[in-house]
Amino acid sequence: MSENNVRYAWFDGAVVPLEQAKISVHNQALQYGTSVFAGMRAYWNAEREQLYLFRPFDHFERLLQSAALLRLDLNYTPAQLLQSLIELLQAEGVDCNCYIRPLVYAANESLGVHLLDSRPELAITLMPLRDGGFVSKAGGMHVCISAWRRVEDNAIPARGKIAGSYVNSLMIRSDAMLAGYDDAIVLNNDGHIAECSVANLFLVRKGVAITPPVTADVLEGIVRRSLIHLLQEALNVEVQERPVDRTEAYLADEMFMCGTGAEITPITRVEHRPVGDGEIGALTSRLSQRFLDIVYGRDSRYMDWLEPVFALQRAVG
Ligand code: PMP
């Protein structure tokens, strides 16, 4: 792929030049926020000249479930979504790490305020990540507890990756940044910790990894689910999915956020209080190393979490 210039998008059922992927100003998703999206990553293994998609079926399944919450009945199966993505990555000739943004949007152009008779369409765009991550910070993050509350399941479900609900994430993150923090932990409406602005949260207390349950108004994170498995099966660490009090964040020995963008990002300070000794925790480092080995295809035990783009392309093509 040519430096950082992305040339193509998936739009209207085909790979098209990026400048042709345009939506009308009357579009319902633009007017009311009625689109859902996925945020996926592909990792480039230079030695093997192979591009690995991390758990694409899980992402596409969640995308279709998010769409279903908005009555958007997209006419694609997860396998067809994967095929479309591979065609796009192939056309682009991606040879570096890459962020992938599949978007399902209501293509209707009426101003009627309802979700009936929606006309869902799919767009997929790419963003090369030549310099590594886009959330992480050396030495760990300093977070606050946001004054905003998480969108709740009976208003706009956080479990769906719904574009409109990201106003909530943007408020949380921007206000934290303006106050001098890197990000924020956000509480749900019952006052327990939900997650960070665009990532799930884990605390470590006395060797036990603790994370809010999927009923705490969080996105059902795919990295979160992967880490629960790794902690239990590969690192032999107890994991508790349970309501987490705000003050547990002040007393944690280690803390990190996790997600496709964040990968595993250590949190070393909460509102000017050091987390543990204020350094990146040992378990956080071990888990992060393990995770990176897996996503780059260096751990043969977890190859079923990856889809190799170029081998699959040859097998299909
Ligand atoms: N919570 C929110 C609000 C997010 O936007 C994300 C990023 N997708 C996550 C959690 C982490 O989810 P995942 O591990 O599936 O990327």
Keywords:
single chain, about 325 residues, alpha+beta, eight-stranded antiparallel β-sheet, 8 helices, about 30% helix, disordered C terminus
Tell me the span between the first and last alpha carbons: 20 Å
As a percent range, the share of strand residues is: 25-35%
Helix-residue proportion: 25-40%
Mean pLDDT: 94
Structure ligands: 4'-deoxy-4'-aminopyridoxal-5'-phosphate
Number of strands: 17
Radius of gyration: 20 Å
| Computed structural class | alpha+beta
**Element-by-element helix/strand order:** EEHEEEHHEEEHEEEEHEHEEEHEH
Uncertain regions spanning at least 5 consecutive residues = 312-317
Sketch the major β-sheet.
Answer: 9 strands, mixed
Describe the structure.
With 317 residues, this protein is an alpha+beta fold. It has eight helices and 17 strands. It has helices at residues 28-32, 56-69, 78-92, 166-178, 222-234, 246-251, 282-295, 309-316; strands at 8-11, 14-17, 35-37, 40-45, 50-54, 98-106, 120-128, 141-149, 183-187, 193-196, 200-205, 208-211, 239-241, 254-259, 263-270, 273-274, 306-308. The strands form two sheets. Strands 8, 9, 10, 11, 12, 13, 14, 15 and 16 form a nine-stranded mixed sheet that branches. Strands 1, 2, 3, 4, 5, 6, 7 and 17 form an eight-stranded antiparallel sheet that branches. Helix 2 crosses helix 3. The longest helix is centred in the N-terminal third of the chain and has 15 residues, at 78-92. The model is unreliable at 312-317 (pLDDT under 50). Residues 39, 169, 195, 198-200, 219, 221-224, 259-260 line the site of 4'-deoxy-4'-aminopyridoxal-5'-phosphate.
